[in-house]
């Protein structure tokens, strides 16, 4: 009986010391679900066209549902790999160039 009590006590201490068990939010869950106003950076299609016509390097990233067609040349990022469906750890961000415009749609 004492052994069972001590075992339960140890398990309770371990779980109470673990922040994940305490319900700590993941880093991406701390973001606003739908940023509004200045927090939601948006660019109009005309501006994107102007960037492309000016010779700027532009990469299109599609992170939506699995569809048959996407914009030609787009990088397809399955929505199941990014928040809120996943934590994004399986996404290889090394393919995203640092000096290009990245347009997500």
Kindly describe this structure.
By secondary structure, the chain is an alpha/beta fold. Helix content is 24%, strand content 10%. The chain is built from two helices and three strands. The chain has a three-stranded parallel sheet with strand order 2-1-3, covered by helices on one side. The termini are far apart.
Key descriptive features of the protein:
105 residues; 2 helices; 3-stranded parallel β-sheet; elongated; alpha/beta
How would the blueprint of this fold be written?
Blueprint: H1 2-17, H2 45-53, E1 58-62, E2 75-76, E3 101-104
Parallel strand pairs: 1-2, 1-3
Concise account of the structure shown:
With 105 residues, this protein is an alpha/beta fold. It is built from 2 helices and 3 strands. The longest helix has 16 residues, at 2-17.
User: Would you report the number of β strands?
Assistant: 3
The separation of the N and C termini measures 60 Å
The main pleated sheet reads as: 3 strands, parallel
Secondary-structure-derived class: alpha/beta
Poorly predicted runs are: none
**Average pLDDT for all residues:** 75
One letter per element, helices H and strands E, the order comes to HHEEE
């Amino acid at each position: 009986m004492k052994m069972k009590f001590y075992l339960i006590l140890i398990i309770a201490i371990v779980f109470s010391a673990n922040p994940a068990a305490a319900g700590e939010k993941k880093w991406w869950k701390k973001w606003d679900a739908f940023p509004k106003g200045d927090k939601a950076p948006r660019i109009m299609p005309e501006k994107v066209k102007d960037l492309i016509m000016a010779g700027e390097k532009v990469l299109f990233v599609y992170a939506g549902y699995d569809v048959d067609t996407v914009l030609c040349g787009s990088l397809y990022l399955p929505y199941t790999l990014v928040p809120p469906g996943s934590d994004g750890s399986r996404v290889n961000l090394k393919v995203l160039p640092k000096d290009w415009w990245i347009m997500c749609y």
